Structure formats: structure tokens, C-alpha cells
User: Fold this.
Amino acid sequence: MKKILSVLFLSILFFTTNAAAQKDRAISEVQGEKNASPLVGESVRLTGIVTARLKAGFFLQSPDDKTDGNPATSEGIYVFTKSEPPGEAAIGNLISVTGTIEEFRPKQEPLSLPITELSMFKDRDVIKVVSKANPLPKPIALTAVETSKTAIDALEKYEGMRVSIAEMTVVAPTNGRVEEKTGASESDGVFYGVVKGLPRPFRETGLDIYDYVLLPEKEKEKMKKDAPKIAVFDHNPERLRIESAAQRGAQAIDVTNSAAIKNLVGVLHYAYRAYAILTDSDSRPAVSNLVKAQPLPALNERQFSVAAMNLERFFDDRDDPEIKEPIITSEGFEKRLKKVSLAVRSYLQTPDIIGIVEMENLAVLKRLAERINKDAEASGKSNPKYEAYLVEGNDIGGIDSGFLVKSSRVEVLETKQFGKDEKFENPVSKNDVPLNDRPPYILRAALKDEKTNKPLELTVVVNHLKSLNGYNDEKNAPFVRMKKKLQAEFLARFVAERLKANPNGCLALIGDFNAFQFNDGVMDVIGTIKGAPSAKETVLLASEDLLESDLTNLVDLIKTEQRYSYSFDGNAQILDHFLVSDWLKKHLAGFGYARINADFPETYRNDDTRVERFSDHDAAIAYFTFDEKTVPNAEGKTNQNPKK
Assistant:
């Protein structure tokens, strides 16, 4: 009993001592003028109005008449309670709260900017209500001038404060969570936007500024030595992450790209390398200008088309004993079949050749072909008679690459997978591992020209290169980077041999290359493959020029604002490319992306009456003509190869 009383006495003494040590501070004093608080580690007592409640904390802001008048210091702060905030922290309550000042960075984002917060401990810290039902502090109006500043921490001075945007344009649709087995999706209410008048943010050339600025100085110095002219991408700090369902009681807002938002009000936070606005639960903004998918134009009698589609883990409702894949419900699989069939028939206009990425196996691809053919006849159109081609690769997740070929018009001369047995030494594990998880797959085909009665032969290679997962991870980056570099050089050597054997061959490399169309600071995957790698001083891992005759990336021929097939954290970017030889380029009639996925919210997956969102990638498609022509590029110049 004496021992219990002793422990109890010590606990009371500890609590009393710490409570006495907690000093009254102003929120602006805690925030300071820099990213990190000058009071980290100190126990303090703050007073302010509760402006928002989250699942594990709440926001506190100084009343308008109690601010310090310094525009460089924030008057708001996040209070971390670890669980649902107590009733005393009701919105509108003026409270005093004790806790410890911390700078928080998520474990998965060690190079992220820190978030200043007051962390509460249940057994020590307390909340005291001073008054209730107070008017909330007036929100700071964010403008295009304010948000377009190039510094990644330009909005630090408003961290934790209420802000508003009069008019905003959505630049990336609402995200969500997908239950893979059923195909059902649930909105998470998160989308990205910019203040009206600012252009859509795109991933640009160079190393991401977060991966550069926040690196240790030793690594920076090495980088400057190895790549002194490396470009730095500013990460587009004008992007604002909108979390419409973060506040307790708030309802998710589902929007498409280009939607217009008016009168958005919320608290400014920070997440995933972007400033985030957590919208007020009782003030829903006005939404307009939701867009819809638009069908591509039909081909004329002198044209044919080739497309590339990433179907995003297209598994079926049957068990494949060779792999441990998710088995989709019959209803979920039916929904995906219906949506992809609609996309191919009515939006892509039944391409003659379709390179397919992320397909389970040949049996599933055949089921898709059969469904498209059946739906075409049922809709009153001619049967395209698609046939499926696929060979299993090395991917441990069970996804492969293949082709759908319109046999009513295309004669298949040869299909062949290559590079399956290629290996290299993993620099991390020191083990020999496969170079190609999804080996390149060749289709050699002939299309009959009804006018000349002569076939036009072309070779199409569908590709799915290593993902960017782990690309900048401290542990796995050496492996991921080496693999991507070697994959690019492997393809470049294949192209060089192919064009040397047949200089006038019609060759296309299509698919998901998991790389941008430019140097990303680490390496230049696409430049290496097409024969125009970036200079050694501009990239960390340089490759030699392995081609005598360059390929053309059709992405470079279209308007700048259309150069995207994917959206990641609000940045539009291209991962899906279409590289062609000079001879095939002479037959080019047009190129672009079918806007059927990347611009639409995840919840559209649930509606099988509409085509949008059966995948997270837009399909790349090129129209060709049997007649040769001179093709201008985006700058109006003709297709002259500089190496010739």
C-alpha cells in the first residue's frame, strides 16, 4: 500500500511540476518566422479559438484582436491529441491548452517540410474553456500572386490559419480508395487546384527541389560535382491540395479536372509536399464546369491506328494457380469489362492494334477481346474480331503486357517476347535479378492498303518499365535507379540493331515507360531509348548515345497543355509514350491521349454506364495514313533527323 501511495505521490508531483513549468506563449511566438519553431521541446500553454476538428487533433488560432501584427508569423497551430479531440475543443470555443511544441514529419516523407504542432499528453495536459460560440477569425484571402511564388515554403506564414479562395480551378480530380476485389471506390475528398488565372501545373525537367534542397550537404556537394548543370524542378508550389472531407462532419467533394470552385474556405495545413486547405464542414463551396470524356474522331478509309492502354491491374474472377493474385468478384470484373469495352469501341474508335499493359494473363485478355467483339455486334457495329496475344513475364504480382489485334484488318506476322532471361546484379542485395519484370513484347504485323493492294508492314513493341517506387528512397534507390537505366539502354540497343537491319522499317515503341519525356535529374530514360540522352553534366546517371538514327517521341509533337497521361499529387505528367522511327513518322496523321481516366474522380469507377475511370492512365493513340507525308513538330519544323 505504501508503494502504491508513493507512486501516486510521484505522479502527482510530476504532473504539478510540469504544469507549473508550462509557460503562457502566443501562437505567433511558437510559430516564429521560420519553418521550425524556436520553442521546439518546450512545454507551453496556448490560448486561441478552435477553428477545425480532425480525427486526432484540432486547430487553434489567435482571435483577430490578439494577433502580433507581424505578417511573417502564423497565428494558427495544429494541436495533436492522438485520438478524437475532447468536447471542450468545440469549434468556436476560446480555450487555453497545454502541451509540448514539436515539429512533425511523416515517416514516409523524411524530406518533407515540417509541421509545427502542439502535442498533448493525456496524463499531463489539459484544456480549459474560456468562452464559447466565438466568431471564427477572418480567413486570409489567398491570391494568384501569393500562391505563385517559387519558394516551396511561401505559405508557411499562414500555417494553421483560416484561409479562403474566391475562385479556383481544379487541376487534378478527386482521389479515393479502391477495393480491388469488388472494384468499388470511395472518395477521400482530396483534389488539387490553383487560384483562377494560373496555368495547370506540369512535371518539368530536372531533379525535384524537395529531393535536392532537403538533402544532406555532403550529398549536395557530390551532386554539384557529378552534375554541375543539373536542373531543379520547383515542384509547382502554386498547387494547393484540397482536403474536402478532412474536418469532422465535412462531406467529400468529387470534381473533375478543370472544374471551377468558388468561395472555398478552410484551414491551411501541409501534406504530401503541398500546402493543403482543409475545407470548413459547414461552408460548402460552389462547384461548376465538370467535364466529360469526349470520343476521338473516326478514322477515314486511308487511316489506321495504334493505341497503348495501361489497364491498371486487370485481374478476373477466376483463380490463376500460378500466382497469388486478387480474385475479383464477378460483378466487379463485369464492370471493368463493360467500361473498357465501351472505351475501345466508342472512344478510341476500335484501334487496329492495342498494346496492353498490366494484364493478368492471356486467358483474361482473350475474355476482354471476346467482350469487345460481342459488344460491337450488339451495338450494331461491325465485329472488329480482336485477337489476344500475351506471353507471361517475370512480374511477381502477375501483371503482363500483350496485344489486342483487329484481325478483321490486320495480319499478324510474328509475336515474340524478348529480354526475359536478362539479369543484372542488384547493387543492394548483390544478387542476380531479372532486368525485365514485364519483358518487351514484339508484334510484327501487316495492314493491307486497299488502294494499292500492297501491305504496309510495321513492328510495334509494347513496354512496361520499372516503376518509380523507391526511386529516391535512401535504401532502395541504388537498385531502382540502376534497373531503370539498364532497361533504357537495353531497349536502345534493341532499337539500334533493328534499324541497322532495316533502316526503312516502320517501328514503334509504346506503353508505360514509367519515365518522363525529359531528364528528371537522376537519368534520362526516354532520351536514352530514342537516341538523344541528356549531356553527362546535366544528369546524375548518364547514358551513352546508342543509336545512329533517332526515334521521335510523338509526345513532343503535340501542344504543351496536352502533354500528360497521368496525374500525381496534382502534377500532370507523361508516363505513357509513343516512340516511332523516321519511316513510320512519315505516315503519321495525328497523335494524342484519350481523356477517359486521368481527369476524372475515382468514384466514377462505380458507374458502369460511363466510360471514365477504369484505370489511372489515359490511353495514348496515334493515327497513321497509308500515304507518306511530311510531319511538322510542335514548333512547325519538319521531321528531319539531326544525325542524318
Summary: The chain is about 20% helix and 30% strand. The chain has a mean pLDDT of 93.
